[in-house]
Design goal:
There is one protein chain. The protein is an all-alpha fold. It is flat. Helix 2 packs antiparallel against helix 3. It is built from eight helices and no strands.
């Protein structure tokens, strides 16, 4: 276990009000980042599943003459513009995080760089969102938009773990020793989770929920890619089951045990949602639940892999 035992650094009077240790505000902002990035995926799903993808038909304005949605645009304009507004809320959280970490930018460079990455991604996401609108919801661009959001969930999960001292160089949590296989196993689970998400994007691009009645599809065989998408999902399930077996057999307590149990729970939930939507005509509500569960899966897999890397080995 490693902790930062160095004395607090002398700070300028102008920033003396900012913390010199990771306090409750920093931790809360980290959690808000993770919640916000997950909500962005949910609201993005709502945009697509309600055919509101072109609710704001232009970018960066909502219409040619208005920055915001207008009453004439109806519910579709509200949904699309609401999704855009959430991006500004996430930017505010990211800026606040960087401000509160300013006095710690050298001592806790891990936190500062993760927060900086989250902030830098927001204009990038905005640009991709704009290209999505300007290309009339091209399925590959829409997919890229979703994948970047998933990557931000991963970053936000790492940020939470480090802010709470659960993992990384400045870990303060007591982590039990793990079998040598645990690290590569959890890294593989995280990798296959990412592959499943990427293939899920391909399946969605071939499916019926395009975000607008006239939006193009990728013209791939939806059923075939749905079965291909299931392969890494099966591997994730097998890896999660093996991880649970290891912690139960080895009587491993603490955060890692909780992490793999959560991972298995989310994996099973995602599988149930996936099979149910497949055999019931892909209803929009289940697709939305599948997207939320995908974000939870990426966070759970990242958390488990991160804790495994930070744990000592038997």
């Amino acid at each position: 276990m490693s902790t930062d035992s160095r004395p607090p650094r002398t700070v300028s009077r102008n920033v003396a009000w900012l913390p010199v240790t990771v306090n409750k505000t920093v931790k809360r902002l980290a959690v808000l980042s993770l919640i916000g990035q997950t909500l962005l995926i949910v609201t993005g799903g709502a945009v697509r599943l309600t055919a509101s993808g072109l609710g704001c038909p232009t970018w960066p304005r909502c219409t040619d003459s208005s920055l915001v949605n207008t009453p004439e645009m109806g519910i579709h304009g509200i949904i699309e513009f609401g999704n855009r507004l959430l991006t500004f809320a996430l930017a505010a959280v990211a800026v606040a995080m960087l401000v509160y970490l300013w006095n710690l930018r050298k001592e806790r460079r891990d936190l500062f760089l993760l927060a900086l990455g989250l902030l830098a991604s927001i204009p990038a996401q905005a640009v991709i969102g704009g290209i999505t609108v300007l290309t009339q919801l091209n399925p590959w661009v829409v997919g890229l938009h979703f994948l970047v959001s998933m990557a931000l969930v991963v970053l936000a999960t790492l940020l939470v773990n480090r802010a709470f001292g659960r993992a990384g160089k400045f870990r303060v949590a007591e982590l039990a020793p793990l079998p040598g296989i645990a690290r590569p196993l959890m890294s593989a689970v995280a990798l296959f989770s990412a592959v499943a998400v990427c293939l899920g994007v391909v399946v969605t691009g071939a499916g019926p929920h395009a975000g607008d009645a006239d939006a193009p599809r990728n013209d791939l065989d939806w059923d075939l890619f749905a079965h291909i998408h299931a392969v890494p999902a099966y591997l994730v399930t097998a890896g999660a089951l093996l991880a649970v077996y290891l912690v139960i057999r080895g009587r491993i307590p603490g955060p890692f045990r909780t992490a793999v149990l959560m991972l298995l729970g989310v994996t099973v939930l995602q599988a149930v949602i996936g099979f149910t939507q497949y055999y019931n005509g892909i209803p929009a509500l289940l697709v939305a639940a599948h997207m939320l569960a995908a974000a939870l899966l990426m966070s759970a897999a990242t958390n488990a892999a991160d804790l495994a890397r930070s744990s000592p080995v038997k």
